[in-house]
Amino acid sequence: MKPGRIVTLLALVVGLSASLAGGAQADACRQPDRTAEIATRGGPAYGTLQYRRMVPLAMKEVALTFDDGPDPHTTRRVLDILDANCIKATFFLVGYYAERHPEIVREIAARGHTIGTHTWSHPNNLRRLSTAAARRQIRRGFAAVEKALAAAPPADRQRLAPFFRFPGLNDSKHLMAWLGARNIATLSCEFGADDWKRIGARQVRRRAVRNIASVGRGVLILHDTKPHTAAALPGIIEDLRKRGYRFVQLAPAPGARQLAASAPDALIAPVAVAAKPVPELRGAQHAQAAGLPAAQHARADDLLEPVKSVQ
Fold this sequence. Notes:
By secondary structure, the protein is an alpha/beta fold.
């Protein structure tokens, strides 16, 4: 056989082997190491940074969560890193961006991650809005994500969980009671990495690992809208695994989606039902719900800085 043909044949064999190995890795990564099932009846609140209750995690178990996406520049990079490390996370999506990038919402679901919501336009403090405006923010956030997933297979639509996270972690008793009546759980965290600040990837990595080690288990808040977070993520994963940590996916307890969908004035629909149209907020009404003056345009980029550090 001629040398050129031998080289070509070897290249084909190597390529085929790599393809098979990649397929095997993808199959191995279809399920996370462990899934923590979250009860949602009555709207419990989780995250000992603010509340008494922690999601069911053992020592040295961490659940990764990402806020404020989907972002067309960085979310897919984060998804690729998670895939490469066989980790399933939870993404708390902003409705404004879900409406503009529904294909990324569907990709998050298709890759097996859990999805929660994070209001329509991320006003930093829902307490500053009227009750009606704050409720519209939450309702429209759920509706936008449902609409983005409407064309997805049922299994992917099921990825939208009855989970909500307050922007800036600025909750309110009356909104939590309103969510609870609709069987929507509030998820806070145990620690963050200050990645919403103007710090570098090295600092994000150091703070994430330090804060996790100080507690030993829990939910980590990161932001998939930040390039330095994507840059820090491989190192965070590497450092934690070297210390013996494993990553756990958060998922609603069986029947939680139907429980929320069957509540009076529900915020989330059954998977079998087509998504409801996203209610429009126009003019002064939109500005009020976004926490902006009526004459100012609602630019979501101006609304995505949490006011509370989650160290």
